[in-house]
Write a structure and sequence with these properties.
Largest sheet: 2 strands, antiparallel
Mean pLDDT: 85
Number of strands: 6
Strand content: 15-25%
Structural class: alpha+beta
Distance between the termini: 95 Å
Length: about 150
């Protein structure tokens, strides 16, 4: 009779961590957060010199469509190094970088005008729509009455 002094358990295969779901900020569809559905990018952090990987907020089809729209608008209208911001009226010559940014509707791809960087970012941060801007106007009216 042979005795086994050591009993070796068969290793169970490790289960892969569940892939997180990510919602496209353009079409609103939810996909697995993988390179199959979202482009991967690297962001460099200047202060501490580290790199961080992340997935773009738009799914690949929406990202590709937006890129095509941007290229078409750049060919047709381009950046302006002359004129004034269509929103606040600051001349391009007074801006850092000396140029205006091309503004367009992200849903329709329609050209809206040329804006300084501040107006372009401000409108975008307010939701890139009239309701967001109007809510900000109502807020400013309310706090200015105090």
């Amino acid at each position: 009779m042979q005795l086994e002094l050591f009993y070796v358990e068969a290793k169970k295969p490790e289960l892969e961590e569940e892939t997180r779901a990510k919602k496209c900020n353009c079409c609103g569809e939810e996909y697995p957060e993988t390179e199959e559905y979202f482009y991967k990018a690297i962001r460099y952090h200047r202060k501490n010199g580290t790199h961080k990987q992340f997935f773009h907020p738009k799914c690949i089809p929406c990202h590709n469509k937006a890129t095509i729209v941007q290229h078409r608008l750049q060919e047709e209208y381009g950046h302006r190094k002359y004129g004034k911001c269509d929103c606040c009226g600051v001349p391009a010559s007074e801006l850092k970088g000396g140029k205006l940014h091309l503004d367009h509707c992200h849903q329709t791809g329609e050209y809206r005008g040329h804006l300084c960087g501040s107006c372009n970012r401000g409108i975008g941060l307010l939701g890139d729509n009239l309701s967001g801007v109007l809510m900000a106007v109502e807020y400013m009216k309310k706090v200015n009455k105090k």
